[in-house]
Design a protein that fits this description.
The protein is built from 4 helices and 10 strands, in the order βααβββββββαββα. The protein is of the alpha+beta class. The chain has 2 domains: 14-51 and 146-206, no CATH class; 59-140. The longest helix is centred in the C-terminal third of the chain and has 17 residues, at 151-167. The model has no long low-confidence stretch (mean pLDDT 90).
Length: 212
């Protein structure tokens, strides 16, 4: 099985404003930088190859197979839950012509991951067996917007952004607070702070991770 991203997500788990609010960050970090941090954090856990093994915000993918399975009742596993829809199934028939299977000729068994089957009492068609003879396009994700994601995932992304911000600071071990009219105070940040954040991220995401 090979997967190709057709339509990437049109939104991120958090806007720059939301990320700043959750992390107590002000105008010292630009929205463009925060947007880049959020996108980077999301890409490490989202989609094919992401740590979670699932789709977060609505996105479309294409599964490419060399043939249909004709054992185990013809089940085809659809990765990257939660599945929204199977949009199109195309294949090359024995003569090499491109054909599209009507939606009535198959059904989707929900689950994580979902499974695609030919209609009851039927089988998948025989194909002109060659690389990429079958293409299945599907849409997956929790919804259209970042607010559709479970809060543990959104909070995990915020913590990942916090780590990324720390890594771009001039000094990872020294921070400061400034109070207008009083002055500023510098202090040393514990070296294990990053490990604590990583542990919190793993804990927040663990329930949502999909294992193949």
């Amino acid at each position: 099985m090979r997967l190709v991203l057709v339509t990437p997500p049109a939104a991120e788990p958090l806007t720059a404003t939301e990320a700043k609010s959750r992390l107590g960050i002000g105008a010292e970090v630009s929205d463009d930088v925060m947007d880049a941090f959020v996108k980077t954090a999301r890409q490490t856990i989202d989609g094919w190859g992401g740590w979670l093994g699932r789709a977060l915000i609505r996105q479309s993918w294409k599964i490419i197979l060399d043939c249909f399975p004709h054992d185990c009742d013809g089940a085809i596993v659809i990765p990257l839950p939660p599945i929204i829809s199977v949009d199109e199934i195309k294949y090359l028939d024995l003569a090499g012509n491109s054909k599209t299977i009507e939606p009535s000729a198959y059904f989707l068994l929900p689950g994580e991951p979902a499974q695609l089957y030919p209609a009851v009492g039927t089988a998948w068609p025989h194909v002109n067996r060659r690389p990429g003879a079958v293409e299945i396009t599907f849409t997956a994700g929790f919804g259209e917007a970042g607010t559709d994601l479970p809060e543990p995932i959104r909070n995990a992304v915020a913590l990942m952004v916090s780590n990324l911000r720390s890594l771009t600071a001039r000094n990872l071990f020294i921070s400061s607070d400034t109070v207008e009219g009083v002055g500023s105070k510098s202090y040393v940040v514990g070296g294990n702070a990053g490990d604590a954040i990583d542990a919190a991220v793993s804990w927040l995401l663990s329930t949502y991770r999909v294992f193949a």
